[in-house]
Amino acid sequence: MEKIAQETKGKSFRTFKYSFDGIGVPSFDYDDHKDITWEQIGESVTQKKAVDLTEEAKQIAQIQPLFSYFLDGSRRVFKVDDIAYKNQVFPVVAGQIGIGCCSRIDKNMRQLKFNRRLAIALPKIASQDDWNTKQFFNSLLKKVNTDEGLRKRSIEFTDILPYSYKKDEDEKLENKAIAVIQDLMIEKEKEMVAYLASQNLLSQDKYLLKDGSLEYRVIDMKNARELRSFKNNYRWVVGASKSFNPENCKDHTGKNNSNLIADLKSFHRTPVSMYSSPRIGNMKFAVWYVRIRNKKHTNNAFDGILKLEKILVLDDEIENGIDTEEVNLITANIINERNPVCYGADFRWANHLYPVYVTETYVKSQYISNTLFLNLF
Amino acid sequence: MGKIIGKVIATEKNPSTIDEFYFWTNPKLIINPFDVIKVDHVNNSVSYGIIEEISHITDTANFLTDYISNDFGQVDAVENTYRIGMNYVKAKIIGNTVNIYIPLLNNEKVKLASAQEISAALGLANMKNPVLCGYLEMYNGSDEEDRITLPVNMDSRFLIGPEGAHLNISGISGLAAKTSYSMFLLKSIQDKCLNKEIESDDDIAFVLFNVKGKDLLAIDEANGFDSEEEKQETYKLYDMLGMSKKPFQNVKYYYPFSGKDVLNTYLDKQSLEDQQKLKKALLYKYEYEDDKDNLDLMFASLDDPTQSMDSIINYIISGQGSFGGLTNWDDFLDEVNKRCKAGAQGDKEITVASWRKFYRIIKKSIYRNPIFGTMHDNNNEIRINDALKKIKKNEVHVIDIAKLNEDMQGFVFGDAVRTIYDLQLGQYNSDDENYTPPSKIVIFIDELNKYASTDAPKSSPILRQILDIAERGRSLGIILFSAEQFKSAIHNRVTGNCSTHAYGRTNAIEIAKKDYSFIPPVYKTMMTRLKQGEYIIQNPVFRSLLNIKFPKPVYKQFK
Predict the structure, then answer these.
(1) Across the interface, which of A339, A344, A358 has its CB nearest the CB of B77?
(2) What is the tally of helices (H) and strands (E) in chain B?
(3) CB distance A349–B62 less than 8 Å?
(4) β-strands A67-85, B478-484: how paired?
């Protein structure tokens, strides 16, 4: 920390360090985002009402499951210090990011690839060179990593990220700092998917199931070619969100249909909707919901319901919506992933899928301990 | 190098300690309690551990989780993913190559050990005065090439003295094969003596008691075996262990004397006659004049708080009244009977009631019992006392008491033990000047609980005799090999003095007793399912309890 203060000519306060994950009641942090435009029916065969997939799920239970790869990214963010620049105090936020991918072979989970990043978020003003912020932070990173203590523990920071701020903004500075770390995580998730795609691991009978939403910001994508390759990476990827904002649940006419979703019967899915969002460029998403656990066993209307997402890749899909058969197959497979459960180990058990849970546990097991991490500063 | 089977885990709740450590393995890897494994440790040393417990865990948080995982109790529910699961093993440290005993470090690799390493780890390597006591089989569940069979030797100084003596074998009848195991050990000792492998001044003789059926009545005859296959298999094991395949040698049998028609033994007439022809069988008798001194042994199981029986026996032994002049048991009974009549003369101290009680008890044993009679001048009859007084090294004397009633068994056993004790104390002046008693005599008795149980009367002369042997036998050269069903039923001064304990199959009630509290729970339950021919043994030279096996006997088995 001293090194950073010295290099950026700021004043470190050595304030109390704490984790953002453990304090207070966790606020509702939905996996999905806002600003969505609902466009049309998202599948080839128009469904008027919920589709029962009990039989299909039973039929395919005997064959190889569709999902062979599971991806989960998670972060642990800490406020490690306050630092003053020009008489204003800024928080310094550091985080561990873990992106893990596991494969499933003969019902046994194996680790495939893991990527860990240790990042520090500093206010943009810390940069001593306004026009070469990137280079400045890169060289700062190198200097930080020369620290004796870090070397002894063979720990290396991988990123120092600037967060920008505007005066008189309501949002807390901490949240801005957390956001850049979150963005880094998403970036790395995308890289992981790209890696899987580049290794030709994904195919029509080896899908990747990603924890959380697929709605990425594609701000960085400058040209159509990049966007195309990004989309192609997601040909065989399904995103499953455990939690979602019921207010955003709308049918193709734009009316709120969260009631319909809450009333879904077990093993039923909603019709698929298609939407696009300004944040995600001109990409289109197919979204639908499925109930994988009987309502009588859950203590919340939306427990046991998963939100499934798929990026529409083919022109035909974008035009007419995703093939209903594919939707049914994916959904039936998701239904079959309902067992085993992580009841007792995770309070979100009703919405968790076991292989994803295992991947998440694996990622978390790879973290440096909180105490050690905090004491790096 | 050794195959790597897992890694050490040390957690907050289950740390590595000086004594023990945990490691994980693949859930499908088959290892067994008592298997020895090795782990690299600091300063290039290697620590050895012996497996105590194996547990399987998954990430299932509780029972309910699994119920829910089956669609809330649907038995035909199928899962798409197997739960993450592993086995973790608790192992006890038994040694380190350079005696470093700080706890093993987390994440160290755990490997299978080689035969040499195992024998060094268990303290079996470079054993002085080795006596074979069985063999170990390790890594039984692993691939063929990983399996290890290893002969187990004991230091004879810790089995038959002078450092430690006496062996106790416990286990339930039939399933534990107690007799077979003690015979195996005795044969192993005799093998060594015949080959002069044991220290030169150590010459050993054996006295065995046959307590049931015909078990030990043909130990110098070869085993017929049920099939050629079984024979080859057994012989192969004897070859591997480096033991001779011959049955016992220099064996003499002593049967209770009986009338012509009904034999006092379970052996059939023909076999007995054959043995007599070969001059290896004799019939034993008790003569009044010489054996009246042992009358106290008949009262071994009787509580005698007023010591009235004691005083009568004293009265008789010291030849008071007219007991001094008697020559046979018939007259003796008459004489005692006289004292039972009201107003009879004699010692005023002893009441008629006491005499009556005495008469009742001895009459039951002696009256019309052919064992009690006068010796005749033929070569077939002998007194046990006379026989044992001349015992020579490497001789095996088998005394058959199987068909006698319990009191008589005690009498014969007590008489024999007393003779051996006196012999080793140097009480007898031998007729033969050149005769020196063997430096060690090993006595084997099954069903020790009859003579030295926890509830035997304190005054029991047999118990006293056994306690003497247990406590002083080591220095006198009298070694007791005893067997019983339940060790907990044996007087703790006897078991406490045994240096070697062998535990065969036993039952759950027995292992719940205090005597077994030092044994880890998994080994305890193992004791309840040990196979025939499997023992858990404990000896001061071994660093841990050992699970050993021994081959089938090579002497004749009666079915």
Answers:
(1) A339
(2) 17, 19
(3) no
(4) unpaired
CB A337 within 8 A of CB B79: no
The tokens describing A108, both together, are: 């046994």
**Residue B111 in contact with residue A136, Cβ under 8 Å?**
no
Using alpha carbons, select from B407, B467, B477 the residue that is nearest to residue B436.
B477
- pLDDT-above-90 percentage for chain B: 38
What confidence tens digit (pLDDT) does each residue in B228-244 have? 999 999 999 999 998 99
Residues from chain B that touch A61, judged by Cβ atoms under 8 A, are: 78
| Residue at B309: amino acid letter | M
Which residues of chain A are within 8 Å of residue B60 when distances are taken between CB atoms? 340, 344
The DSSP code for B74 is -
Q: What is the CA radius of gyration of chain A?
A: 22
**Position A274, amino acid:** M
Select from B65, B82, B84 the Cβ nearest to the Cβ of A341: B65
Alpha carbons B335 and B330: distance in angstroms, whole number: 9
pLDDT digits (tens, 9 = 90+) for B172-185: 887 778 999 999 99
pLDDT (0 to 100) of residue A280: 57
What residues does each domain of chain A span? 31-66+205-338
Confidence of residue A27 (pLDDT cuts 50, 70, 90): very low
To the nearest whole Å, the CA of A301 is away from the closest chain B CA by 18
Residue A163 has pLDDT above 80, yes or no: yes
A232-241, B116-125, B127-136, B371-380, range with the lowest pLDDT: B371-380
- Structure tokens given for A286: 């197919």
Say if the Cβ atoms of A343 and B82 lie within 8 Å: no
Q: Which residue of B has its CA nearest to A296?
A: B72
Phi, psi of B228 (to 5 degrees): -60, -35
Q: Which residue of B has its CA nearest to A111?
A: B84
The confidence score (pLDDT) of residue A22 equals 45
Q: How far is CA A111 from CA A102, B116, B362, B438, B472, in A?
A: 4, 38, 84, 71, 66
Q: Measured between CB atoms, does A361 come within 8 Å of chain B?
A: yes
Q: Kindly report the backbone phi and psi dihedral angles of residue B469, in degrees, each rounded to the nearest multiple of 5, phi listed first.
A: -65, -45
Express each pLDDT in B259-298 by its tens digit.
777 888 999 889 989 998 998 999 999 988 888 888 888 8
Chain A residues with beta carbon closer than 8 angstroms to that of B70: 339
Average pLDDT rounded to a whole number, residues A162-187: 80
Look at the block and give the residue holding tokens 């005749």: B376
One-letter amino acid for residue A27 of the chain? S
Give the Cα separation of B447 and B483 in Å (integer): 6
Q: Which amino acid is it at B30?
A: I
- The answer to whether A260 faces chain B, any CB pair under 8 Å, is no
Write out chain A residues lying below 8 Å of B63, CB-based: none
Single pTM value for the model: 0.77
Residue of chain A with shortest Cα separation from B85: A108
- The pLDDT tens digits of the residues spanning B322-337 come to 888 888 898 889 988 8
Which domains occur in chain B, in start order?
4-113 (no CATH), 153-284+378-549 (3.40.50.300), 288-366 (no CATH)
Closest-CA distance, B139 to chain A, in angstroms, reads 26
In this complex, is the C-beta atom of A294 within 8 Å of any C-beta atom belonging to chain B?
Answer: yes
Does residue A24 register a pLDDT over 50?
A: no
Q: Where are the alpha helices (DSSP H) in A302-369?
A: 315-320, 324-336, 354-365
- Report the pLDDT value the prediction gives residue A212, as an integer from 0 to 100: 83
From B363, B441, B71, B343, select the one nearest A350 (Cα to Cα).
B71
Q: How far apart, in whole angstroms, are the C-alpha atoms of residue A188 and residue A73? A: 8
| pLDDT at B199 (0 to 100) | 57
Residues 6+ apart with CB under 8 A from A48: A271
pLDDT mean over B400-413: 90
Is A371 at the interface with chain B, CB within 8 A? no
- Compare CB distances from B84 to A109, A343, A344 and report the shortest one's residue: A109
